[in-house]
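Our consortium's second objective concerns turning raw sequence data into structural hypotheses that experimental partners can test. To show how far this objective has progressed, the report includes one record in full. It was chosen at random from the queue rather than selected for favorable results. The single chain below, 107 residues long, was entered without modification.
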Amino acid sequence: MGPGRDPWLAAAPVLGPLPATPGLQATQNGAWLLPDQTPLVPELDAFLAAGEPPADVGFGSMPVDPQTGRMVVEAVRAARHRVALFQGWADLGRVDGAADADPDAEP
């Protein structure tokens, strides 16, 4: 890479440990988070207030199989938890409309 061109890794070492790579001087400094005071949409706020904290699942810009949303909801339900499934660009849709899962939620 060279001076001034070495990469930075914005991931916590426990979640994304930096592998040893000879000749690479990467800097790992954890997640980059900006404070956000944007209020939640009313539907998500009501969902969060209606029970125990849900598992938060999202795929960001990753394309996924159309059945992924259903598999995630079923897995979280099997663990006896609620789930907030965030669509991102994954084009996930509502699984079944049950009160324990809210795939249409937007943060």
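The partners drew two points from this record. The longest strand covers residues 55-58. The chain has two helices and four strands. Both points have been shared with the crystallography group to help prioritize constructs.
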